[in-house]
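FORM 7B: Structural annotation worksheet

SECTION A. Query
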Amino acid sequence: MLRSELVDSIHKDNPYLTREEAERVVAVILESVIQTLEKGARVELRGFGAFSARHRGPRKGRNPRTGETVMVPEKHVPFFRAGKELKARVDNH
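SECTION B. Predicted structure
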């Protein structure tokens, strides 16, 4: 599902919202999740799953083009763990 399809779905299920208002709802939710992850906090949506930021330490990598060893700096990456209900619904599709 694309972002535009999500907006269309929200707009269709809530006819009292304009498409622009549905777009704003999606934007606010996603921005809230991003800002929370930037702070290093966790976002949990019961039944759906949890978003968190995981730390990856520095490591040695390899440039696939040249084969040269390069150092990959430490970083934080987003991580999603699916909730129990989501897993069950996807498994029973």
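SECTION C. Observations
The CA atoms of residues 48 and 87 lie 8 Å apart. Residues 19-38 form the longest helix (20 residues).

SECTION D. Sign-off
Analyst initials: ____
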